[in-house]
Structures are given as C-alpha cells and as structure tokens.
C-alpha cells in the first residue's frame, strides 16, 4: 500500500459555501444519495502530462463531447466510503488507503490510468476539509463517491488517453428504511452478475448496470435486495447487488463466499473478518451452495445472515425468497452476533470504541 504523505499534492481551491443554517436544514434527514455538498475535487490525466490540474471547485455539471469514450466503451470506475463526525466534533475517514488500493486495482482491470494512493486520499481529505460542515452527527455520515472516467473524444476501440478523476459527497442517513432491522432478499435464477475472467472484482458501473434487471425482479417480489449465484453452475452464493454476505452458523462461526475474482473485495467485509478473528470467532471463506443455505436455515444450522458494505454497513437478512418459495433466517430479525458486529464496527468508525487496528484516518 502506498502510504506516502497525502499533503504532497496541492489542490487549488475555489470555495462557494452554502450558508450554515441551510446546511443544517439539508442534512437533518437526507434521503440517501439525493443531497450533495457544495464542492467537488477533480484531477485530470493525459498520456502527455500524467496527473495534473488538481482542484477543489464548486460542484457543477460536466461538459463532455458526444464522442467521449466513456459514453461508448464504459471505461468508468468508482468507490464508496464515508466520513464520520465524532462526539468530540472531530471528522475522520475509515480505512481510506484500502479504498485507494481497490481503486487502483479497478483501474488496472479496466485499462485505465492508475491514481497514486496519496493523491486519492489527498483529494478525498481536501474535499472533506472544505465541506466539513456537511458531515452529519449522530447516526448520519458523509458518503463520499470518488470516481474516474475516460474523457478522450475518440470512437476507436482502445483504452482512452485522457481521464478525469472526481470526488463528490452526499450527507446520508440509513441506506435501508429507518427502523428496519432486517431485510428480505431475492435469489435470482435468471441473472448473473459476473463470471470468471470478467470484471466482478472491479468496482465499475457496468457490474451494477448488469444487476439492475435482477434488482427490479427482486423489488417486484417484495424484496429489498437480490442475491446473485455463480455464472457457471448457478449454484454457489456470491454476493448481493451491492454488498457482501455472511452467515452465522450454530457453532458461532462465520462463513462467507471466497474472493474468487467474481465478487467485489469489500472493505467492510475484510474489516468484519479481522474483527471476528480478534474476538476468537472462526471465519471460513469457502463456497456455499444456495440449496445448502436453505436446508441449513430450516434445520437451524444457520442462525443468522447479514449483508455488509459501506452504504448498508451491517444489515441483517431476515427472509429469503426465490422462484420456488421462501424461508426465514432465525426468527426473521437481527440476531445477537449481527448486532454485536455492527455495534463494534460502527463504534470504531465513529470513535466511540478504541481502534486497535489503526483504521481511523483523522481529518485535521
């Protein structure tokens, strides 16, 4: 991991702040992804100049040519991360260099320019400093969306020679409906998200676009999220539409699908594995068949299941629906292991619990 100083990259600043009272009103009860802060960070890359023109400026629409490469060949990647306000009014990021590392891996897979880790974190940190007043307290957070796309005006099929990296921010509350302790998921038998050799491990927009039909199908069946199975056998559980998944077994151990190249290596997932192992919980990363999950849930061998990710954090799965029926996990609510893991993780993120891992990155 590149841990060089985030301060070696200077961002020019054009500040256009919203009055404080309007910010307070905007972040009081925001709908996820609908309210945005005043500014954005941008950095450009060209094959001739490399990374240059770093700015913090007013958030505004982009002007791109109709022949812009991203519109035709989908060279685009993104990240999701959060800034938190502590009880002492401090603001911090959670494992930002892990996001930077994954962003580079996504760029490599999509044949895009690789952004240095320090520049990635520096851009995020610079934006948070300028828009610090937009970071909610309490259970809210500032969702950060770093992304990059091809900007070359060219219709030939090859990697672009120009890219724009940008970071925008959105104050958010819970991802799922407030007060909902467990979600219902739909297991798709029609659609797959990714296959071996594809882009499943990259955080690119195409993966999410490919899953939208399945998510629509899930919604039509009264479900909050979709569960994808593997593309080859349509048997093995992989991940949800935008989240990884864990199972709590009757012996207290955790089980989660392995990183085989077809699912996203979630930072929340990795953090949960580290937390669990520190607490003496056995964690197995191995394939798990949907039919086995159903049988284990009915027999009681699976006591709990939960989804995890930056947006959802840790969310219990209460019921599972599929074309042939439905089954319940445990009592259909949030179990004690899920609750404990969520409380510990969010406690570290918000500074309420000591961070023994060095995950918290304070914003000066």
Automatic annotation (TrEMBL):
CDD domains recorded: BCAT_beta_family (cd01557)
Keyword Protein biosynthesis appears in the UniProt entry: no
Catalytic activity from the UniProt record: L-leucine + 2-oxoglutarate = 4-methyl-2-oxopentanoate + L-glutamate; L-isoleucine + 2-oxoglutarate = (S)-3-methyl-2-oxopentanoate + L-glutamate; L-valine + 2-oxoglutarate = 3-methyl-2-oxobutanoate + L-glutamate
Enzyme nomenclature, EC number: 2.6.1.42
Recorded GO MF terms: branched-chain-amino-acid transaminase activity
This protein's UniProt keywords: Amino-acid biosynthesis, Aminotransferase, Branched-chain amino acid biosynthesis, Pyridoxal phosphate, Transferase
Enzyme class: transferase
InterPro entries (alphabetical): Aminotrans_IV, Aminotrans_IV_CS, Aminotransferase-like, B_amino_transII, BCAT-like_C, BCAT-like_N, BCAT_family
Entries under PROSITE patterns matching the protein: AA_TRANSFER_CLASS_4
Superkingdom of this protein's organism: Bacteria
Gene3D superfamilies, A to Z: 3.30.470.10, D-amino Acid Aminotransferase, subunit A, domain 2
Pfam families tied to this protein: Aminotran_4 (PF01063)
UniProt pathway: Amino-acid biosynthesis; L-leucine biosynthesis; L-leucine from 3-methyl-2-oxobutanoate: step 4/4; Amino-acid biosynthesis; L-isoleucine biosynthesis; L-isoleucine from 2-oxobutanoate: step 4/4; Amino-acid biosynthesis; L-valine biosynthesis; L-valine from pyruvate: step 4/4
Reported cofactor(s): pyridoxal 5'-phosphate
Role played: Acts on leucine, isoleucine and valine.
UniProt record similarity statement: Belongs to the class-IV pyridoxal-phosphate-dependent aminotransferase family.
Protein name: Branched-chain-amino-acid aminotransferase
Species, as recorded: Paraburkholderia hiiakae
């Amino acid at each position: 991991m590149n841990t060089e100083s985030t301060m070696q990259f200077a961002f020019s600043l054009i500040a256009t702040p919203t009055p404080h009272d309007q910010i307070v009103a905007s972040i009081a009860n925001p709908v996820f992804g609908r309210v945005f802060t005043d500014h954005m960070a941008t950095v450009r890359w060209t094959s001739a100049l490399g990374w240059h023109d770093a700015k913090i400026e007013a958030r505004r629409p982009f002007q791109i040519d109709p022949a812009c490469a991203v519109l035709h060949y989908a060279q685009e990647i993104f990240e999701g991360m959060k800034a938190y306000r502590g009880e002492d009014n401090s603001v911090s990021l959670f494992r930002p260099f892990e996001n930077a590392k994954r962003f580079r891996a996504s760029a490599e897979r999509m044949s895009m320019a690789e952004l240095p880790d320090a520049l990635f974190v520096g851009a995020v940190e610079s934006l948070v400093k300028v828009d610090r007043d937009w970071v909610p307290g309490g259970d809210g957070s500032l969702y950060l969306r770093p992304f990059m796309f091809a900007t070359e005006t060219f219709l030939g099929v090859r990697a672009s020679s120009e890219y724009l990296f940008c970071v925008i921010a959105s104050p958010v509350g819970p991802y799922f409906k407030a007060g909902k302790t467990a979600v219902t998921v739909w297991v798709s038998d029609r659609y797959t998200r990714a296959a071996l050799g594809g882009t499943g491990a990259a955080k690119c927009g195409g993966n999410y676009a490919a899953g939208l039909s399945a998510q629509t199908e899930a919604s039509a069946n009264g479900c909050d999220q979709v569960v994808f199975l593997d593309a080859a056998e349509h048997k093995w559980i992989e991940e949800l539409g935008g989240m990884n998944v864990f199972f709590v077994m009757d012996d207290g151990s955790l089980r989660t699908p392995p990183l085989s190249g077809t699912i996203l290596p979630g930072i929340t997932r990795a953090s949960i594995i580290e937390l669990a192992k520190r607490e003496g919980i056995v964690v197995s990363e191995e394939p798990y068949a949907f039919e086995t999950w159903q049988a284990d849930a009915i027999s009681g061998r699976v006591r709990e299941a939960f989804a995890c990710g930056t947006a959802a954090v840790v969310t219990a799965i209460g019921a599972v629906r599929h074309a042939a029926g439905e089954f319940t996990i445990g009592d259909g609510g949030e179990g004690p292991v899920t609750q404990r893991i969520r409380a510990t993780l969010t406690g570290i993120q918000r500074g309420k619990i000591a961070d023994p891992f060095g995950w918290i990155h304070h914003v000066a």
